[in-house]
Amino acid sequence: MNSLFLEGNKFIGKSTLLQKVLRLTCSSVNGFYVNRIINDGGQIIAFELRAAKELLQQKAEMKTITEHCFIQTREGKRIRNLFVFETFGIELLKEIKKVPADVVLLDEIGGIELLSEPLLAELLAVVRHSNKIVGVFKSERNYQHQKQLTIEKLEVNEQRVLLKREIYRNQGQLVELKENNLHLIKKRISRFSKKIFFFKRYLFKV
Fold it and tell me: CB 3.0–4.6 Å: which of 14, 32, 36, 71 could bond 6 by disulfide?
């Protein structure tokens, strides 16, 4: 198995679980993750793309970079900014080839980012040539929900099918995270990331 992606309902803890396991089992990580920006009323007002390597850094508090927010809420509707993916997003994906890490994190994919053809091309390249990926793949239910919340048209069915096909073709798996299998999936991710970590240590010793 070269990659392991989680699917599941919103707020079930997919990203939290991945980040917790990576902090325990990896010494380095690259790729990206999405940070939700929440206002004082507890509402999500923006989604920010961040470098996965930050997850292993000891920082008190990371400031929001507005230029890296690919979705922002205005007057109750979400406005998207694909330029974030075509600049910062592609930069993070290209860094995967230049700076090897224990694990690549792609959290999450399968949604609005697939509207960017350059980013999709880089994503496919990463899936094809990396053997150490964990991430979140947006479920069909969550994708349909996102479509309803965006002002602009969001149709990426073909891109989602293409990306899934490449994941399976390159010995990847998609697993649904549920409340009753959380502990089991946590063990599975841990085994996967530890296997990569110890394999790399063996290579360096030989």
Answer: 14
Residue at 145: amino acid letter: H
Contact 133, 2 (CB under 8 A): yes
- With a cut of 80, say whether residue 206 has pLDDT above it: no
CA 32 to chain centre: 6
Phi and psi at 126, nearest 5°, equal: -65, -45
Let me know: does 19 contact 32? Beta carbons within 8 Å.
no
**0.85 surpassed by pTM:** yes
Angle, nearest 10°, between helix axes 117-129 and 157-169?
10
Tokens of 156: 């990426």
pLDDT tens for residues 58-99? 665 678 899 999 999 877 777 889 999 999 999 999 999 998
Q: Helix H segments across the chain? A: 14-25, 83-84, 90-98, 117-129, 140-149, 157-169, 182-205
Q: First and final CA of the chain: distance in angstroms?
A: 23
Compute the mean pLDDT over every residue in the chain, rounded to the nearest whole number. Answer: 88
- The amino acid that residue 202 corresponds to is Y
Rounded to the nearest 10 degrees, the angle between the axes of helix 182-205 and helix 14-25 is 30
In whole angstroms, give the CA distance from residue 158 to residue 129. Answer: 21
